[in-house]
Amino acid sequence: MPSKRYLSILSVCLFTLFVPSLCLHSSCKNNEYENNTIYIVLLLPKDNRFLASHNKVRPVIQLSIERIHQMNLLPGWKFNYVFVDTGCDVDYGIWAAIKSYVEKPVHLFLGPFCDYITAPVARLAKFFKIPLLTPAALADDFTSREKRSNSSEYHMLVKPGWSFSDMAKALEKLFQRYGWHKLLFVYDMNGREEMAKHDYCMLAIKALHDTFFAKTNCTLNQKKLKKSQSHEDLLRNEVGDDYA
Fold it and tell me: With a threshold of 0.85, does the pTM exceed it?
């Protein structure tokens, strides 16, 4: 069950994003749609193997909307939200965003959850003039680039929460605190498949590498974890005393 603090933060984020985008889409003028309704499209995978599938996210959205009403943030407004399956696939994710924009009014995109879909959809959202709120976008590129300018690549992307860059900065502080100077990246190219279909661990390692690469007094090495290799063998032969 999400914490009250988390729901309050999410509710305020939703409120802040809704207001500027109301009725920017031409479909809002269509009598088929209600003028006092906020339309949300959730671009998420339907497959429950993923951490943020439709069934897992739906209760959080419902609780957040209830909290908005309880806090009286948008008196008189109703919410209409629809889930669209991205399959955590780039092609389907882009098509889902475009199809939703063309066929119905959209005031807010929630998601996508997978980084490789978030990037192209966030670029489209800039031209749609529709905010895109996602807990994903963990890759370093999403946080290292300026987003306040209208010309920014990810101008409409809003990303609450942590990122791989934050993880790298935290690890950097540990290295500084304890005087460590050697770092070995051990990762599985297809690890954490519940988070993304491809390269989740690789994106995390990239953020760490970019942070530590500038450190002239830090030695970096990397090792891809092989399916046929046991963790014990890896620790004995690859890590050993050198990184103990």
Answer: no
